[in-house]
Each structure stands twice: as C-alpha cells, then as structure tokens.
Amino acid sequence: MKRARIIYNPTSGRELFKKELPNVLERFEKAGYETSVHATTATGDATEAARVAVEREFDVVVAAGGDGTINEVINGIAERDNRPKLGIIPVGTTNDFARAISIPRNIHKAVDIILSDNIRALDIGRVNDQYFMNIAGGGKLTELSYEVPSKLKTVLGQLAYYLKGIEMLPSLRPTKVKIEYDGEFFEDEIMLFLVANTNSVGGFEKLAPAASMEDGLFDLLILRKANLAEFVRIASLALRGAHLEDERIFYTRAKRIIVHTEEKMQLNVDGEFGGLLPGDFTNLRQHIEYFVPIEFEKYNEKEDS
Ligand SMILES: Nc1ncnc2c1ncn2[C@@H]1O[C@H](COP(=O)(O)OP(=O)(O)OP(=O)(O)O)[C@@H](O)[C@H]1O
User: Fold this and answer.
1) Cα-to-centroid distance, 40 and ligand 1 (Å)
2) ipTM of this complex
3) What is the pLDDT of residues 66-107, one digit of tens each?
4) 93 CB within 6 A, ligand 1
5) Residue-level pLDDT at 148
6) 270 lines ligand 1 (CB under 6 A)
7) 132 Cβ partners below 8 Å, 6+ apart?
8) Which residues in the chain show pLDDT less than 50?
C-alpha cells in the first residue's frame, strides 16, 4: 500500500484547509493510500516533518500551505537520496509555485491532481546550504516580503506586498556586485538581482518568460542602477513580460551563479530571509518529482519546442 504524509500549515492563507482535512483524508484512503497528517507548529517545523517522512520511507509527501510551507518541505527532502514524490495543495497567501506548475487553488482539484498520479521531475535551486523552488535574489526590493506583517498578509493577501512596495520605492539604493555565471562575469551597480527557477513570482507572472523547470538552468535577471522613473517604467514592462529588452536589464541563463557584494546585502530565498551574501547558486536538474496536471506537460512541451 502506498503511504502519504500530509504536512499542512494551519495558519496558511485564510486557514481553510483544516476544515477540509477529513474529506481530503477520505479521498486519499479511497484511492488506496495509507495516510497520516502533521500540522506544523512554527517556522522550520515543515522541514523537520519532511525529514522524518523521508526517514519513515513515505512514498508521497503532500505540502498543504503557501510557498513558505512548500519551501520548507523541499528543504527537508532535497538532500536525501530516497526522496518521496511531492504533492502540492496551495492554500497559502502566496502560491507562486503552484501557479507555475498549473495547480489550481481549489483544494479538491489539487487533490485530484495528486490522485491522478501524473509525475514530472523538476529542477530546484540550491544557494549556500538552502534549497528553493521559485526564486532567490538580493537587493533592497527583495527585502519586501519579510517586512510585511503576516497578519496584514492574511487579511489583504497579495495586496499587502504592493502596498509595502510602493512605500519602499523612494528608499531603493544601488549596490556594487560581482557576479560569476558559468565562468563569465558581470560587474556593475545594481538595484536587484534575481535567480529564477520558475517564471511566476510575486504577482509578476512573466518575470522570466522563458524559464523552464526541466533544463537545469536558472534565469538570471539583474536590474542595473535606475532612478525612480526608470524603475517604475521597468516594473510596468515586467508586468507584461516586456522588460528583458530594456537596457537597464541584464538577462542570461546559467547553471551555476556566484554573487559577491562589497556592502552587506541580504539574500532572499523563496520570499524569506536567507542570510547574507555571498551566494553560491547551483541548479539541481530534475531533482524533485511532483504531481502535476496534464496541462502542465502540454505547456512545457510547447515551451520546449
Ligand atoms: N503553526 C504555525 N504558526 C505560525 N507560523 C507557522 C506555523 N506553521 C508554519 N508556520 C510558518 O508560516 C510560514 C508561512 O507559511 P505559508 O507560506 O504556508 O503560508 P502563507 O499564508 O502563504 O504565508 P505567508 O504569506 O506569510 O508566507 C511558513 O514558512 C512557516 O515558517
């Protein structure tokens, strides 16, 4: 019998998952799974719970929560050889990763996808000793997400980030960086750099339009020093995926990226504080097996050709 461990964050998003849990469990049981549940209690707990699930040799781990919960679960399984398959039930405030792999926010539709057993092995990133599935980066702007109080996020959702972003715009300062990517070098003053694994981040659904999650490459996006007017122009271009041609943007794809800064710069890993730079980024090709909808396959094949 297949065994699934459901790791869920009871505080995620609008806290809807718990009510649905008995129905979700019943559906897994009916589909032939022996199921058990872990409700996370604090930051880091999902990582520990996922580690334990690997030790107990679960076939499947289901992460029910937002991007934070998925990131923690991935950090619990990524280092291990016998990695379980990963199911996603997106019930968070930010569900960028679920959107990137075409998983709907409806709990039961997300369960349908897991139970339909369609698997795809996708890339993840590692920076220093942390793993990420969406994006990592640095620069003043990326410090947003942990400045937004979680209460505000629960009430306002995505809007909370935009409000905070507008408030921070005037305080953006450039930083001098040296970035090595697959043996080549970039050196300049920048506003921010992003190392993307998926194409959809923080409401910008076309930030890295060509990003594939199966090619073992990151999309590296750098915004050079820009004034407020340039910044607003590029942000509005980015909303429709038309920013890559802009002269203030440097864009390339690479498997390994090393970032050094002269001043202290914080690293953001999947929306959370990830320590200070320098950062040594490696793309781990097709490292995690996920349950994905058939539509995702079609989409990715179209992208590949
Ligand atoms: N019981 C808990 N109480 C408080 N925080 C928790 C609990 N369980 C997990 N967490 C933390 O909450 C963080 C955010 O969770 P998650 O991403 O699942 O939800 P979210 O609603 O999208 O939240 P956010 O938008 O704040 O990132 C997780 O990274 C985890 O560290």
Assistant:
1) 9
2) 0.95
3) 999 999 999 999 999 999 999 999 999 888 899 889 999 999
4) yes
5) 59
6) no
7) 71, 74, 124, 125, 126, 197, 269, 270
8) 302-305
Give the three-class secondary structure for 289.
Answer: strand
| The predicted structure's pLDDT at residue 162 | 57
Residue 140: other Cβ atoms inside 10 A: 17
d(CA 9, ligand 1 centre) in Å: 6
Mean pLDDT of the chain: 87
Report which protein residue has its CA nearest ligand 1's atom 16.
66
Q: Tell me, in angstroms, the distance from the centre of ligand 1 to residue 13's CA.
A: 8
d(CA 253, CA 260): 18
Domains detected in the chain: 2-117 (3.40.50.10330), 131-285 (2.60.200.40)
Q: Cα separations (Å) of 125 from 70, 89, 97, 128, 261?
A: 13, 21, 13, 10, 20
